[in-house]
Amino acid sequence: MLTGWRNISWTLSLLASRRLSICKSSTFSTALISSPSSIVPRPLSPTQTFSFFTSRLASSSTHCSAPLELQEVLQVLEQLAPLSLAESWDNVGLLVEPSKSRQIKTIMLTNDLTDAVMEEAETLSCDLIISYHPPLFRPIKRLVQKDWKQRLAIRAVEAGIAVFSPHTSWDSMKGGVNDWLVGGLGSGQVSVLSQALGSASHSHKLEFMVRSSEELNAVLEELKACDGGAGLQSSSSRQDSSSIHVSITCSDSALTPSVQTLLRHNTPSQSLSILKLEKPPLPGYGQGRLSVLDHPVTVSTAVQKMKSHLGLVNLRLALGAGRTLESSVCTAAVCAGSGASVLSGVKADLFITGEMSHHEVLDAVAKGTSVILSDHSNSERGFLAVFKERLAVRLPDAVKVVLSKADRDPLEVV
245: annotated binding-site residue? Predict the structure, then answer.
């Protein structure tokens, strides 16, 4: 009977989640488990299942047309691209939060928040601006009108418009800006140039010896107090009749008090070793991409493909030493924006990025690598249309997602 109920529970949960996904309601997140790459339904208890199933279906028409609160939209954005993927130096997330709460009915996507984009957002009565580049990056000591970025922040607050920036979290995510950029050349075996690392609750491993089970229990009790007992993980094995080997993992905050505790005990202090644990890699996530093309192309064809992909009439090209327009491109490395630091040292037939300095281009060319430059934001902006569709299907119909028409790269060929 229990097995049968579990099957029914799972089926009803799945039907409920599918029903809600049709309505594009964000309220389904209460019954789903999210990960960087997928969202899967979780079985509910018997009472939870029938309650959830009947109440959600009964109110689905309301959720299909109701706007969302700002925090609900932020939860959806986090599911699509966790902010933890951003580089440590970056300034991502909610940058401007109005003092008065208002429902989110119109969201504007832009690559850069400029005066022209802000005026457009005000005209459309936008409630939230998602600016790929953070308009506020460096610490601010005052808000004055003479600084154009501070002026934009003031206008956003006065208009009650929230501002959110994802920046390098979009670059790093699987299926993000860099995957979109490298896709312009066609299919291939794609790998990450600078691997993203996952978060780890435990950063250090402490190994030591004790003489008896009684001493082990006493030491562990003291260690549990160092981190409230929540962050301690331990294992032990008897080496011989006179000693027990103990291994514990702890967080950064618990490291110092844990070591101090062990130093107060004679046997552990004499045998103590400390190991720093590496963060686990996140396959498919990180900065930059390298593609081994399934179908190699010439440099000339690569240029035409990228023009079409980026929607540009002109690109800048530097041919690698000994290369011509008819030279074959079997491998291409890309990094959206200013990619020299990520591309440096990478062996590839072609680099594609937004901008590189004069000497960085010379270095690549001398090594036989051709370089395509599109100007900074032109290597990023096209992804906004892709993200617009991903976001729209996860929001109620009452929330409109639009692309800025005023957003453009400041440089143009004349």
Answer: no
Distance CA 345, CA 363 (A): 10
Do 338 and 376 form a contact (C-beta atoms < 8 A)?
yes
Burial classification of residue 164, based on how many CB atoms lie within 10 Å of its CB (0-12 exposed, 13-18 middle, 19 or more buried)? buried
**pLDDT per residue as tens digits for the range 219-247:** 998 888 876 655 677 888 887 778 899 99
Predicted local distance difference test score (pLDDT) of residue 137:
94
- Residue 63 annotated as lining a ligand binding site: no
Residue 376 is assigned to a ligand binding site = yes
Q: Are 334 and 353 in contact, with CB atoms under 8 Å apart? A: yes
pTM: 0.76
How many Å apart are CA 34 and CA 283, to the nearest integer? 17
Q: Which of 48, 70, 49, 58 is nearest to 23 (CA)?
A: 58
CA dist., res. 169 & res. 387, Å (int): 13
180 with 309: CB under 8 angstroms?
A: no
Residue 265, marked binder: no
Going from the N-terminus, what domains does the chain have, and what CATH number goes with each? 2-66 (no CATH), 84-171+384-403 (3.40.1390.30), 186-195+284-374 (3.40.1390.30), 204-276 (3.30.70.2750)
Q: Phi and psi dihedrals of 335, rounded to 5?
A: -155, 120
Question: How far is it, in rounded angstroms, from Cα 148 to Cα 154?
Answer: 10
DSSP 352: E
